[in-house]
Design brief:
The structure is a single chain. By secondary structure, the protein is an alpha/beta fold. The protein has a single domain, classed as 3-Layer(aba) Sandwich (Rossmann fold). The protein starts with 22 loop residues before the first helix and ends in a 19-residue tail after the last helix. Strands 1-2-4-3-5-6-7-8 form an eight-stranded mixed sheet, with helices on both faces. Helix 2 runs parallel beside helix 4 and helix 4 crosses helix 13. The radius of gyration is 19 Å and the shape is globular. It is 37% helix and 14% strand. Strand 1 and strand 2 form a beta hairpin. The protein is built from 13 helices and eight strands. The C terminus is likely disordered.
């Protein structure tokens, strides 16, 4: 591939049927109720084994997680921690799909909820924002202590993938032991993602505004003496809502400073020293693929770049699991599937 992404090869192993090829179909279809019902049925063993945890993440912060141990007599030293995307939860279809794939491979699986995601708005008074990395790192420390495992296996989707890559990049200074990390459609440059949401199909911005407003209403109900979001909900667009919340409830001086605070482009991943894989698509309508060229080079980082797949889609059939969930599980498992041809990060050759 030439041009801005000349450093990357395209993995051709994901070939959805033509009727599933459209990037918006890929991005929207997995969330439909039909697939969720199928996933809930498929993941019953995982769900039956899951127990709720409230993790002490330090500084008085508590986060919720769901821990599925393997059955009696099936020992495992491998613990996978999964993190959903913005306004998703530990119950999101993709989180359950990958959790199921890993559970069947013998992993213990912990599905973590970010602050104010799922039914957790009551746990912490302060609002969620995407620069709250310290509490995710604190949750990972608590999980490692609880499970007594060696290195954790991390996986995340969209914003969750962004969080997990940031956590992995500072693993040494944070005292975290991480075996490997996989991020599916991770947010790379938040400012570019905001523009993509503004300029893309209106359905995406409406979807996130609706879910965010619902989440803010739950936060207000849990902490009525501290929050009133009535005016904010009337804005109806992500840029104005985010800028106002940044101004009122964070230490950041501007929207731009806040968005830059959780970008993983530039030097953010330069210290990455654990095996890491990004799985993403050229046709992602939410995370522009050209921002891959702005990642800091690291011998620890591999990029699996497909032509199609949309945002956290990668549907090649309507059954429970997606191609990305199977591939991410194989990467974490470090089995023979993970050795299949993949796009690797390498400097662009002259003239590319």
């Amino acid at each position: 591939m030439r041009g801005p992404l000349g450093s990357f090869q395209v993995d051709e192993s994901f070939r959805p049927p033509s009727w599933l090829g459209n990037r918006h179909v890929q991005s929207i279809l997995p969330s439909l109720p039909y697939r969720r019902r199928r996933m809930l049925s498929t993941a019953q063993p995982l769900l039956a084994a899951s127990r709720e945890l409230t993790l002490d993440c330090g500084q008085g912060v508590r986060l919720q997680a769901f821990h599925a141990r393997q059955g009696a007599g099936r020992a495992t030293a491998r613990v996978a921690v999964l993190l959903h995307g913005w306004e998703g939860s530990a119950e999101s279809h993709y989180a359950l799909g990958l959790a199921h794939e890993l559970y069947t491979r013998g992993f213990e699986v912990v599905r973590l909820n970010l602050r104010d995601h799922g039914a957790t708005h009551h746990l912490n008074r302060e609002l969620f924002h995407s620069c709250r990395l310290a509490e995710v790192v604190g949750a990972l420390r608590a999980i490692r202590t609880l499970t007594g495992c060696g290195g954790l296996y991390l996986a995340g989707f969209s914003l969750g993938g962004n969080f997990m890559l940031r956590a992995a990049a500072q693993a040494h200074e944070s005292g975290l032991e991480i075996a490997r990390v996989v991020a599916v459609s991770p947010v790379l440059e938040p400012s570019a993602t905001l523009v993509a949401l503004e300029q893309g199909l209106p359905v995406y911005q409406r979807y996130f505004v609706r879910k965010w407003c619902r989440s803010l209403a739950l936060k207000q109900a849990a902490w009525p003496a501290h929050y009133d979001f009535a005016q904010l909900a009337r804005y109806g667009d992500l840029r104005r809502m985010t800028a106002e919340l940044v101004r009122r409830f964070t230490e950041f001086g501007s929207l731009e400073e806040y968005l830059g605070g959780y970008a993983i482009t530039g030097s953010r991943l330069a210290r990455l020293a654990v095996p890491a894989t990004i799985i993403t698509a050229l046709d992602d309508p939410i995370v522009p693929a050209q921002d891959l060229a702005r990642l800091s080079p690291s011998p620890a980082l591999r990029v699996i770049l497909t032509r199609r797949g949309g945002h956290c889609g990668f549907l090649d059939r309507l059954s429970a699991s997606t191609w990305a969930e199977r591939r991410a599980a194989a990467e974490l498992d470090a089995g023979t599937e993970a050795a299949a041809p993949a796009a690797t990060w390498a400097p662009a050759s002259p003239g590319s």
